[in-house]
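Dear Dr. V.,

Thank you for agreeing to look over these. As mentioned in my earlier message, I'm a first-year student in the group and I'm still getting used to reading structure tokens, so any feedback on how I've presented them would be very welcome. I ran two proteins. I've put each sequence directly above its structure. The first is here:
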Amino acid sequence: MVGYVRLQQSPLSQVSDTVVHMYRKPVSQECRKPIKDKRFLKYWLKYKWMTDTHELAYKRKAKLRKKHRKVKAELVSDMTNLNIAVRKSRKGKEGKKGVIIFDKDYDGNLLRLQRSLIDGTYKTSEGHDCMRRCPCGKVRKLHKLPYYPDHVEQHALMQILMPYLIKALYIESGASVKGRGMIYAKRRTERWIDENKSCGRLYYCKLDFIKFYENVDQQEIYEALCDFFTDEGIRRLLHEVIFALPKGLGIGLYPIQTLTNFYMSILCRLVCRTFDVKVEIYCDDMVILGKDKKEVWKAVNFIKQYAHDVMHQELHSNIGMQIIDDSHFLDFVGYRFYFNHTLLRKRMKEKFKKKMHNLKNPMRRYQVAMSYKGWLMHCDGFNLWKMITKMNSFDDFKMPQIEDRDANGKRMFEGQRMSASYFAERTIVFLDVEFDVDSKVHKSGKSNVVSVEENGQKFKFFTNNKKLVEQLQWCSDNAKFPFLGKLRRMNQSGNPDFRIVGTKA
């Protein structure tokens, strides 16, 4: 009787008479095997219209489950696992203050962290919030924690849990999963369209949650993970990660994306096994694909109700039915999907044209072209590549050999080396920038070199100023070099703190 769940007095008129067979072969192509893991039944039973009989039956079955009992907290606190976590957590952070302080007493800090994990006294640090502009242009609020002990502990925890969580993820989920990504999601979408384009027309709806991470119900996602992992030590560590903030999940924390993927997998599997639709998801962006318009609307209404009742989330109201055929496309993960071909998203195409048109530096043109080459090679984008680069193949665009490079392939700019203070409050031309160059200027061994020009003479200076590097990174990403600007001293006490102002691209 547990295998069959009947919705009693459902608020959804579209699915009021639906009988959900949790162990039958699904209609969709998402998974051809019957459900073996019965933990997802729990989230059906959260509805108030479910009968007590089913709930009691689920509890009896839950006592018999023995999955993942071998995952113990002792594995997280193992010294070998902690050393691996340290090595992974410090990638790209060798020169950071937290890493340097940690290395001064490496063994002692690691022993103290191990002792706190064994004793159960580990607590997540308070951390702080910061605003950061993402590559897509959005400004997001990130929650940052100190390197020690939080970064090391989170990497040690995920090092143990990741193999089990990846196996439990929805097959179409490609965000922040090793071996997947946008190209993986693109190929899965193309496969489904190719298999069903014989219908003549396909339908889809794009769904987007309102501030998903900020409004995640912490208790719900914690219960979902506790239902998956039975060890109390693992549950305690997961509690520290999930409840790090008073509300929602901290964007920027290492485990968050994987945990939310696991949480969303429950909903995606439930929809695929209930309706004859296909669910594509990337982060919190969801696309419902189907051959029948009514079936797609049923799935959309069900998701809205499920998100409100169980997940305590709301969806954007701009939900509309759209079609896919020879002349209408699906815009998803940076591509436009038609029946017989796939093109690059229009916004990305225009950005590629603008960058290549404005750039004059041959090396910078090569770098930008190579960054878009990967996108174009995975779709029908050769004509666009040929039109912009004037090349007859993807391999014809070669690296220009006009600049001296060091052993690591970094450019060595011409001109006399000066300090940044030399150019303070002076109008100069910013020519280019090279990041993470081997240098003795900074104790980390890495620095950023800026090529400038003044009165027709070329100079260069090194900087590791965080705000200044962010400005230079933005100028590099948006093809602003070369430009005219002024290096203004922001700290009047004499300490090196500069910003670029009055720029003219």
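The second protein is here, in the same arrangement:
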Amino acid sequence: MKKWCLMVAAMLCLMIPTVGSAQGLPDFLQAVQSGLSEGLSAGSAAMEKDLALSMTLSDSRVEEGRDVTLTIRAENPRPAETGVSLTLNLPERLAAQTGDELTWNAVLPAAQVDETGAFVPSVTTFTRVLTLMPGGESAQGTVTAEMNVGSRFYRESLPIALCVADISTRASVSGAQNGRATVGETLTYTVEIANAGMAEKNVPVELILPADAALEGELPEGFAQVQRQIRGEVGVPAAGREPSVVTLTFPMTIREDALAEDEDALRLLSGVLRVDGQRIALPRVQLCGPKISAKLLPQTDNLKAGEETALRVVLVNAGMAEADVRVSCMLPEGISLVTAPKPQQDTEAKESGDNAEAEEEAPKAVAPEQDDGGADAEAVLADGAEQLVDEPEIRQENGGIVFDLHMDAAGEEAYTRVVTLRVRADEPQENIKERLLGTTLAWQIDAGETQLGEAACVRVYRPMVLGLTKDEWMGIFWAGLLLVVTVSCLFAAFNSDNKREKYCE
């Protein structure tokens, strides 16, 4: 509208000189005409000046959870207000704050005239807060602003980096051999959190320790423990040329009584690990313990007085952990341990075939002979499982027999050892033809609680002939002999008295 008014005024000014000259107007009207023409020319030139559009970002990187501010700067060098239309184009996953429009109309104020008479452009700024939506990977994008006045367009673009954290987690356990652990051992959970993305991130971590496990040492900084649950947050920097890695360690000790009530001496250590809301699988660790059973098997259950026999102590480890075992055997009164010295071998015997006999005398893990009490031993001894073992040191303590030995862990089959004890039956008391004696067995695993085995019974008897023992037959013999001697003496004395009477006559 203003433009049309100026054009009408100009036409009137052009017509005034003609009319004025015809009527004889003063010369000053020509001066007015000239001034107006020059003003109109200058105004038209000022209105034709270009607008200016520029943008700035508070940060060339935008990360999840951290906003950036976009500032749009529009300059108007014209002496009149100018209406414009603005449009903001954002890359995918980048959005303006709620309430901020991406397309809007605005009026740019007119330029101002300074002291020298020059026009000073007006500056109008528009701000938008940009937020990166979650999801996706790191990428490069472009923010574009467009401004148009009628058919004229102004455009400005800025690059922006969409930075996202790329978190991956790996969990491992150390201290376990072949995925197995024993009570009292210390295991260490190691959690490696890697960031291959362009943005740092505070990652929440939650670890629930397995039952019967206690944390060893101090927690990482920023973590706290409530019972078995450990929680905290760790900051993982953005990746450089290589992914950044943060390592967390959680050492723990397995309690000594972890398998106290477990008959199988085997259980799975199950913990729970969550990193950044995702459940991470922990390595499987089997908690193993020894499973020791012992049985006392006499070579025979009928033993003559003064006769020697073998008592076999059969120990079986069906568990997947080795153990040191102390075995004690209480012999009843009437049975004594035979301590025979080890045979000495000279050089010639070693070079001869006597080696075979010496090897046969060495203790072996071999199945006992079949008898009334040997059926159970066959069940625990594997067929053909003969192997040479070190003979334990057998000693007598507190009226019993004690020895220590090491039991290896079970493999495909149970590990079995047999220790042979040579014993001798003592003579029973007088007037006792036989006695039933019981031998007891007890053992301790790694200095733990004492366990008792079944008693083995042995019948000790005196040899008898026709229901009488040797001593009884000897007593009858001497009594008979004494009787014969007595009768002979009486007979002789009687005969001597008769001879004396005949002599006197």
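From my reading of the second output: Residues 470-504 form the longest helix (35 residues). The radius of gyration is 56 Å. Does that match how you would interpret it?

Kind regards,
E.
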